[in-house]
């Protein structure tokens, strides 16, 4: 490992890279170990292994050559700001880097937005099959790199032999998932970005269509982390995590829902009259007297119930979008479910609440999901009178 000690006064860096702007580092000590990190933009075997079928009739070397022709901005960013990033992330997290060295692998195509171990960042496209989403560029790409680095740093705290200063290795919020570890990593990445990319560039990236689409835990993040957990070297992320009780509202809210297991160890096959035997959500809806879409019937052994929805709940929005039919509700929920989960704003007994629809895991019988209150929803009723109560 390298040890770098730097004393800096307040100053501004205006880099040659389009991703850098006025930034300052006066609050940081730059005193500690950071790993040696290299950028590898020629991982031919790695790129080929990610898409074995694709590269049967296509050259992985050709795509890697494409990367080397299009990665100048991200390479320049890392050469200019890499050590700053590692130091700032170390101080804002409150964790030590435990690796002597590792590589950042730049690839053209990757199934998701990236990986933290190994650290992989796509700069061409993301997806599988015949459909690929264009990878982000500029500050959005730089934020992705910071996000993967933050995930890597936090994940190392749970590795064997790692003794975290604040004893957070087994904290529930450190468990993988879009509402827990990913939100912690996003907070660390954004706060690091403020001091490296600049506040304007960081916020512009975070509020871009790309990051809105790829942050399923966004509402939880903004309600519980963003303006509540203020990271500084004096109170880093590890301290905030350690101070969060295991029984807190946030911990209960973000638990992945898990279906109760029957005494035989198998799913209990019970069905609700009027609902199809198949379907992930297990609910039907109707338009109620106020003009809102409301839950009419619900299967207690399928996803919607396990995540906290109940009969009589009126659906105000899904991921911020008004839904006016059961078909639209199911489509939006299932679309976001593929990316980690969907946030539903509901009205129950006059109170506005939020329910997280997430993939199922097992849990002990009686373990209930948690709801938290949000500001009152727009009381304007839907203008639609149609409904679909045939189930999902």
Helix and strand composition category: alpha+beta
- Fraction in beta strands: 15-25%
Mean pLDDT level: 81
Percent helix: 25-40%
Low-confidence stretches: 3-22, 262-269, 362-392
**Cα radius of gyration in angstroms:** 23 Å
Spatial shape? globular
The tally of domains stands at 2
Strand order of the largest sheet: 9-10-11-12-13-15
Task: Encode the helix/strand succession as letters.
Answer: EEEHHHEEEEHHHHHHHEEEHEHEEEE
Report the span from N to C terminus: 54 Å
Number of strands: 15
Number of helices: 12
Largest sheet: 6 strands, antiparallel
Give a structural overview.
It is a single chain. The strands form four sheets. Strands 9-10-11-12-13-15 form a six-stranded antiparallel beta sheet. Strands 3, 4, 5, 6 and 7 form a five-stranded mixed beta sheet that branches. Strands 1-2 form a two-stranded antiparallel sheet. It is globular, with a radius of gyration of 23 Å. It is built from twelve helices and 15 strands. It starts with a strand and ends in a 19-residue tail after the last strand. It has 392 residues and is of the alpha+beta class. Residues 3-22, 262-269 and 362-392 have low confidence and may be disordered. It folds into two domains: 2-251, no CATH class; 258-373, Pdz3 Domain.
Please outline the helices and strands.
Elements: E1 2-5, E2 31-34, E3 36-40, H1 44-50, H2 60-70, H3 72-93, E4 101-110, E5 115-116, E6 119-126, E7 133-134, H4 138-156, H5 181-196, H6 199-206, H7 209-213, H8 218-226, H9 237-243, H10 249-253, E8 258-260, E9 283-287, E10 293-298, H11 303-306, E11 314-318, H12 326-337, E12 342-348, E13 351-357, E14 361-363, E15 372-373
Parallel strand pairs: 3-4, 4-6, 8-14
Antiparallel strand pairs: 1-2, 5-6, 6-7, 9-10, 10-11, 11-12, 12-13, 13-15
Helix pairs in contact: 1-2, 3-4, 3-5, 4-5, 4-6, 5-6
